[in-house]
Amino acid sequence: MKTHRKTLAFSCAMIIMGMLLSVQYQSTNTAERELYQQRPENLIAMIRNLTDKRSKLSLEMADLSNQLADRRNAFEDQTLVAKSIEQELSKLEIVNGSRAVRGRGLEVTFLSTSMVQYSDLITLVNELWASGAEAVSVSGVRIISSSYIYYRPADGGLEITVSNQPITWPLKILAIGDSNNLEKGLTLPGGFIDMMAFNKIYPTLRQKEALELPAVNLSQRFDYLKEYVAAENTAAQTGTTAAQGS
Amino acid sequence: MLRQSLRSVFTLTLICFMIGGLFALYLRYAPSSQSQTNALSQRMDNLVSTINNLEQEIAAYEGIVQTSRDELAGLENQAQTEWLRKLQEELHGAKLRAGLTPVTGPGIVITLDDNVVGQKADPNGDPNAYIIHYEDLLAIVSELKTGGAEAIAINEQRLITTSELRCVGNVILVNTTRIAPPFVIHAIGDPSILADMVTYGRLDPLITEGFPVSVSEDQALILPAYKGELQFKYTTFS
Lengths: 246, 238
Known about the structure:
By secondary structure, chain A is of the alpha+beta class.
């Protein structure tokens, strides 16, 4: 009798413990709690960005499945394969800046009298990507993943450089993309333009129908980086090292 | 006899304690979904669940994109003719430069976290002074690029040309993906140059202010591929 009761008590305790743990786990899901701490308008902004990303991803899925279909035809139709490779390549050429591009977008101009800092330009370029820019150039230098904006001493002062090229005045930053969204991204309350005005810098924004951005002048080369191939696939690794060298 | 009753008292105490704990937790967390049925919390629930759903869908889509890209890469070596093989090699090189392949190489690992200790010691101070902001990450990333970093990832999000860093409220996003502290930045390049750039750069004030920061060199980092989309609607070639 006693043992029965004890067993019952023990099982009850265990059940409660289990429930306790599960309740705690659910309620302290930090990723979700973090969202509850935000203001509704911020959550709405996040939803807008995520929805945009989802629709772009579904386009990407369609692209890739078309490519897969084309490339499975390799044995029958090589021109089809070549076409699909060239399509993929052209996207990568935009990302890598290996070809000059054109399109509508936004032009941001700073006059030589403005006291713009190199860090302002880093912020600006980042804001443009965040507002959906597809390609960006600063003072005629195309921005790619390895581009850097910095400064160096010149004529007793400092000059801003973009991937080691000194900028020229008036300084123009060009971004291809939805020109309305690009402008909105910079003119949000408390955004880039407000921040600049606080420092008495007043760049002009102009939406343009046709911007021309140059290709990068140096193609990217790697001294440290190699493609990572999982260990079991060594045959492919030698293949890719050869491709890298080309 | 006395001993046994003592023992059952103990057991009972334990059980009561647990029920109590459970009830306390219930009171603390359950009302957010039950009694607070006012319009605002309802709206918050809707917004948060929309975000959760979108994030799950996006993760699923990214998985499909990744699988398709891997499958395409697997078909690469089947080229029959010389010109097609050349084209595929060109594609492969372009993918490597764009950040669409996992990469390996020497470099540094930076970890930084919110200054929890500092905040506890200063409960009435501005909490913003004790958290890492996206501006800090942007500054560090820029310094790494100036130091010649060949590939960078933050919390396993690979940075490509179009990658942005932003914040919504106090949530930091990279590639539209939420990331949370501790932040771990991997950068491939010359380890000592990269370490110097950040140590004498943005990390310096953070360390002075008491943020937990570490920088370590590594001879064989592995950075993941970019998982997101590459969609261009406005760009054509000149």
